[in-house]
């Protein structure tokens, strides 16, 4: 399948009704067709892995094309520069989280990018760091606890960020680390209690919400 065919098919799958609903979830609709995620995933399955097409689709700037690109891209062929270019183009939490989940988390650069992006000023680039942390806490079964303990230090450092899409991702990362196993649960709860004592509304919300869930977790 070529680029023009892919865009044409995506457009056919869209609907104005679904597109209108996207606004309620704070997703940009200016460059969107209004295609539900299940439809994008079904279409991606028909295409299969096609890294060259993925690169072209991402450059289109169309929301659904970028998500489709993240599914059909080959993580083995990913480069550091490509990941940075894609991440720098994030303009919504939807594209950010889908690209992190479908693509970046499967590349050899994933752990490196958490630390790198956590210090970036752009809201959705910074969100990517904590989205990756949350995703890897669930899906990277081979990662040792020490790697997640280091992430708790980053979470604590950035907990004062008041921006909505950053603080929600920081909270997500803390919760997922705390649900990984009993040892990390204890460490994450301790981290959450330290964050809760910070003089910051964002930090207090992140911690209080995560602590409620982590303290209920049974292993």
Which word captures the global form?
globular
Question: From the 3D coordinates, which CATH architecture of the largest domain would you assign?
Answer: Alpha Horseshoe
Largest sheet: none
Distance between the termini: 47 Å
Helix content: 55-70%
DSSP summary, beta strand count:
0
Mean pLDDT: 97
Q: How many separate domains make up the residues? A: 2
Instruction: Tally the helices.
Output: 13
Describe the SSE topology.
Blueprint: H1 3-13, H2 16-22, H3 37-47, H4 51-59, H5 63-72, H6 80-88, H7 93-102, H8 110-117, H9 123-139, H10 145-158, H11 164-178, H12 182-196, H13 201-216
Helix pairs in contact: 3-5, 4-5, 5-7, 7-9, 8-9, 9-11, 10-11, 10-12, 11-12, 11-13, 12-13
Care to describe what's here?
With 219 residues, this protein is an all-alpha fold. The mean pLDDT is 97. It folds into two domains: 1-92; 109-219, Leucine-rich Repeat Variant (Alpha Horseshoe). It has helices spanning 3-13, 16-22, 37-47, 51-59, 63-72, 80-88, 93-102, 110-117, 123-139, 145-158, 164-178, 182-196, 201-216. Helix 7 runs parallel beside helix 9 (123-139). 69% of the residues lie in helices and 0% in strands.
Please give a handful of descriptors for the protein shown.
219 residues; Leucine-rich Repeat Variant; 2 domains
Concise description?
This protein has 219 residues and is an all-alpha fold. It has two domains: 92 residues; 111 residues, Alpha Horseshoe (Leucine-rich Repeat Variant).
